[in-house]
Amino acid sequence: MYAVASTLVIPFALGAGFDERTTSVVSMTAGITTIGLFLAWHHLPVLYRTVLPSQ
């Protein structure tokens, strides 16, 4: 998942005129954000039920 997100961003970042270092940072940020959103999507409902159990 991280590899896919970061790989998809690279051509767009280079096409937008970023240099290689900035493109690397942008691609890593995209990968990390994707993983964070995925984990939040899976774990927040579980945490919500743990903190606020239903009646």
How do the helices and strands line up, and which of them pair or pack?
Blueprint: H1 2-15, H2 20-51
Helix pairs in contact: 1-2
Folded structure, characterized:
Keywords: Membrane, Transmembrane, Transmembrane helix. The chain crosses the membrane at residues 25-48. With 55 residues, the chain is mainly α. It has one domain (2-51). It is built from two helices and no strands. The mean pLDDT is 82.
Proportion in helices: over 70%
Strand-and-helix sequence, N→C? HH
* Poorly predicted ranges: none
Give the CA-based shape: rod-shaped
Oligomer: single chain
What characterizes the major β-sheet? none
Discrete helix count: 2
Chain-averaged pLDDT: 82
Strand segment count = 0
- In percent, how much strand structure appears in the residues? under 5%
Instruction: Report how far the terminal alpha carbons are from each other.
Output: 37 Å
What is the radius of gyration? 16 Å
Count of domains: 1
Q: Which structural category fits the helices and strands?
A: mainly alpha
Quick gist of this model?
The chain crosses the membrane at residues 25-48. The protein is mostly helical and 55 residues long.
